[in-house]
Amino acid sequence: MATSAEHLSALPEVTIRPMSEADVAAVVAIELASYRFPWSATPAHAPSLAASTGAGGTAVLYASWNGATGVAGWRVLAGSSPQTLASVGQFPRGGFETKMVVRTTQRYVAVQALGPEGQLLGSSGAVKL
Q1: Which CATH architecture has domain 48-128?
Q2: Residue 28 half-sphere exposure, CB side, CA atoms within 13 Å?
């Protein structure tokens, strides 16, 4: 029968060392991936808007709000100045960046991010077409 010392000598040699920063980062990443839960975020910055004139009296707009989780749709505003904007259309969110085409001859446009119940979440600045 083998003794305890003989059993121990059959085990592989193990080296114990302090964890490096890379080791810690890997463990944290695994832990975070293991504990997923619902969360929401509303960025401190305003939604982004890019716009240009389109064909036949239209404007083409691209809206996004990086980091915002509650955006369900966009309201497009247009006016002769940034102070005279009025609603000209509403669109469902279309992924990270939503493309919208509205019929308008106004010089300025902006967008409002809307929540699932139509509540206002944030507004872009006005963009001159």
Answers
A1: Sandwich (2.60)
A2: 7
